Automatic annotation (TrEMBL):
Protein name: ABC transporter protein
Pfam families, per database record: ABC_tran
Record-linked InterPro entries: AAA+_ATPase, ABC_transporter-like_ATP-bd, ABC_transporter_ATP-binding, P-loop_NTPase
Location of the ABC transporter domain: 13-249
Source organism, top-level taxon: Archaea
Alphabetized UniProt keyword annotations: ATP-binding, Nucleotide-binding, Transport
Similarity comment: Belongs to the ABC transporter superfamily.
Organism: Halorhabdus tiamatea SARL4B
Record GO terms (molecular function): ATP binding; ATP hydrolysis activity
Length: 333
């Protein structure tokens, strides 16, 4: 098969069969296990997964910072591991912890420096840098050394420096971590604007599902080094819509009800106290819905409420990770 990812420029990021095994003191760990996806230009993608799922390794492999054990990665048609410096003209990143800004330099000087790294003459970008500073609400601090800024402000400067590099694709690791609500909203708006108006491709990792739901077009969920879901946020929400119900019944449940329900339906939650029992069910279609009503009827329970639960991405994420049998991370010796 021809390497389509090496030729198609409209695909911002292409990952094909990516595998990474780390060799540690306690043996080998397969951090990423055959991951493939393509991200078209202008898309905002959330890369999600529980701790240790392989997100950072995947991102580092895309950025050329980790050498894959096998598989290929390209950005805007450039094979990252073969042509790293050319790839860096297309992609930049703000990675975990290392908010790579220079604390002795002012905000404005940092933007100029990072523009310079890309071969851009910063003198020709004063207006653009002013815009970035304004968008990030850093006007009052523009000529202040970064070391005098708060942690959240430093984070914004790191984001600004990524923008100053003017690459079409950006990777942002936990971009809103530690930011206040207003700043988070502003950055969410800016990320959406960058994608819509400037056709930027943005890949972000975050454990905050509200942020993901607010900005992403699509989510890729990793678990145990594999992709367990890859879909638009809309589809994921739709797929779960009107399927989860919360049922409240009088008193402790009739004997065996939980088992009967669990045999036929997916019971997500169960909570009993002396007066009421509340449980949640995932029902795939109207047949299941009526079958469930029948089961409750036959069990002679008195249903207080039977309500649809509005899905949110966080519930879907937890459900996906819990119901997918994660492959073993450890590679057998
Ligand atoms: N340099 C390394 N050497 C050995 N094992 C590693 C190394 N980096 C990561 N791993 C292991 O690879 C697996 C995936 O780690 P990775 O950091 O990619 O996950 P993650 O999804 O980014 O997790 P988190 O959300 O906790 O940051 C984990 O089991 C981790 O311990």
């Amino acid at each position: 098969m021809k390497d389509r990812e090496h030729t198609d420029e409209s695909v911002a990021v292409s990952v094909s069969g990516l595998t990474k095994t780390y060799t540690g003191e306690d043996g080998d760990v397969m951090a990423v296990d055959g991951v493939s996806f393509d991200i078209p230009s202008g898309q905002v993608v959330g890369l999600l997964g529980p701790n240790g799922a392989g997100k950072t390794t995947t991102v580092k492999a895309i950025l050329g910072l980790v050498t894959p054990t096998s598989g290929t990665v390209s950005v805007h048609g450039i094979p990252v591991h073969e042509e790293r410096s050319r790839a860096y003209t297309r992609v930049s990143a703000v990675l975990e912890g290392a908010r790579n800004v220079y604390w002795r330099l002012t905000v404005r000087e940092n933007l100029a420096f990072f523009a310079g790294l890309q071969g851009i003459d910063p003198k020709t970008r004063r207006a653009e840098h002013d815009d970035i500073i304004e968008t990030l609400g850093l006007e009052a601090k523009a000529d202040e050394p970064v070391r005098n800024l708060s942690r959240g402000m430093k984070q914004k400067v790191a984001f600004g420096c990524t923008l100053a590099r003017e690459t079409p694709t950006l990777f942002l690791d936990e971009p809103m971590l530690g930011l206040d609500v207003t700043t988070t909203r502003d950055l969410e708006t800016e990320i959406r604007r960058l994608a819509r108006q400037e056709d930027k491709t943005i890949v972000l990792t975050s454990h905050d599902m509200d942020v993901i739901q607010a900005v992403c077009d699509r989510v890729i969920v990793l678990d145990g080094g594999r992709v367990i879901a890859d879909d638009s946020v809309e589809n994921l929400l739709d797929a779960f819509e009107a399927q989860t119900y919360r049922v409240r019944i009088d008193g402790g449940p009739a004997k065996g009800l939980r088992e009967t329900l669990a045999e036929r339906f997916r019971v997500l939650d169960w909570d009993t106290d002396t007066d009421t029992t509340t449980f949640e069910l995932a029902l795939t279609d109207s047949d299941e819905f009526f079958a469930c009503v029948n089961v409750l009827d036959e069990a002679n329970v008195s249903v207080q409420t039977f309500t649809e639960i509005e899905p949110n991405l966080e519930d879907i994420f937890v459900d996906l990770v819990e119901t997918t049998e994660a492959p073993l991370l450890e590679v057998p010796q």
